[in-house]
Design brief:
With 118 residues, the protein is mostly beta strands. The chain is 0% helix and 58% strand. Strands 2, 4, 5, 6, 9, 10 and 11 form a 7-stranded mixed beta sheet that branches. Strands 1-3-8-7 form a 4-stranded antiparallel beta sheet, with no helix packed on it. The N and C termini lie far apart (40 Å).
């Protein structure tokens, strides 16, 4: 199994910044991707950004390009999501996600609330 510990999030005014972090533990030797999804009330969960662990390639949603950046931390199996120029429509629960190809499944963090006030 893979355990995910998230931190960050909170309440911020529009135009502000927040940083989320996620650390994976457990069976992390076969991680394929690690990143963030979000889910707003009444909406489906959507990809925000993810890193392909071996290559370092990155996927970023069009809605956050130029404002959000995902990066690997110096600590093992940690990723950060730097969120700048936040908008009210970024309000959602943000979930850390790992796909472990060795186990053939994905894992989710418990989620952290991000609220952007106008």
């Amino acid at each position: 199994q893979v355990q995910l510990e998230e931190s960050g999030g909170g309440l911020v005014q529009a135009g502000g910044s927040l940083r989320l972090s996620c650390t994976a533990s457990g069976r992390t030797s076969s991680m394929h991707t690690m990143g963030w999804f979000r889910q707003a009330p009444g909406s489906e969960r959507e990809l925000v950004a993810r890193i392909y662990w071996s290559s370092g390639s990155i996927d970023v949603a069009d809605s956050v390009k130029g404002r959000f950046a995902i990066s690997r931390g110096t600590a093992e199996n940690t990723v950060f999501l730097q969120m700048n120029s936040l908008k009210p429509e970024d309000t959602a629960v943000y979930y850390c996600n790992v796909y472990n190809w060795g186990l053939g499944r994905e894992f989710w963090g418990q989620g952290t609330q991000v609220t952007v006030s106008s």
